[in-house]
Design goal:
The complex is a heterodimer. Chain A is an all-beta fold. Chain A is 0% helix and 50% strand. The mean pLDDT of chain A is 93. In chain B, strand 3 and strand 4 form a beta hairpin. Classes of the chains: A mainly beta, B mainly beta. Chains A and B meet through strand 4, strand 5, strand 9 and strand 10 of A and strand 4 and strand 9 of B.
Chain lengths: 115, 113
């Protein structure tokens, strides 16, 4: 298994500002994934972060809005830039467990409210 | 804590009964189908998976059924317990290039004593 810590667990932010969410894993992993979960909805993949290369973004998500860093094999950050109320969501990071990722491990999430 | 499943369809069952949660998927190219459980204030937790070339797989108190003809996935929970109350999501694994999980719609399971 993997233990994943996300910071902050929740935050209330003013529109127009940016928030950086940190994800720390207790072991080295190849891939880290960032998801968004809007209120009452399922999880939507934002991007995949591989150490040493630029993140790969899913359709509808762009680097300028959600820049991601992956400086080493145990850490990643997701920044939500120039926030609006529509960005209010839970943001979750997840880790790859090897060749197959069926048993992914998730952080507890960061609950973001933009006012 | 606040629930992530306030607007999701809800299945209400009595404690001890069996539960069946259903999911329709659209992509036939998935290699694996997976069920995740999400409790309030937590990230999703893996329950069970099934490879696309199988139609049934059993775990402890859970069974996953895959019907590729109608693109339907179901999760059966035997002798449902209060601790099973959560939101359940189906997900598909795409393993080309790099593996990624795509989540489907969720269902809230409410277990009543």
């Amino acid at each position: 298994s993997a233990v994943i810590s996300q910071k902050p667990s929740r935050d209330i932010c003013q529109r127009g500002t940016s928030l950086t969410i940190q994800c720390q894993v207790d072991s080295q992993v190849t891939m880290m994934f960032w998801y968004r979960q809007q209120p009452g909805q399922s999880l939507t993949l934002i991007a995949t972060a591989n150490q040493g290369s630029e993140a790969t973004y899913e359709s509808g998500f762009v680097i300028d809005k959600f820049p991601i860093s992956r400086p080493n094999l145990t850490f990643s950050t997701l920044t939500v830039s120039n926030m609006s109320p529509e960005d209010s969501s839970i943001y979750l990071c997840s880790v790859d467990r090897g060749r197959l990722n069926t048993e992914a491990f998730f952080g507890q999430g960061t609950r973001l409210t933009v006012v | 804590g606040e629930s992530v499943g306030l607007h999701l369809p809800t299945l209400s069952v009595q404690e001890g009964d069996n539960s069946i949660i259903n999911c329709a998927y659209s992509n036939s190219a998935s290699d694996y189908f997976i069920w995740y459980k999400q409790e309030s204030g937590k990230g999703p937790q893996f329950i069970i998976d099934i490879r696309s070339n199988m139609d049934k797989r059993q775990g402890q108190r859970v069974t996953v059924l895959l019907n590729k003809t109608v693109k339907h996935l179901s999760l059966q929970i035997a002798a449902t317990q209060p601790g099973d109350s959560a939101v359940y999501f189906c997900a598909e694994l795409f393993s080309g290039g790099y593996n990624k999980l795509i989540f489907g719609a969720g269902t809230r399971l409410a277990v009543h004593p």
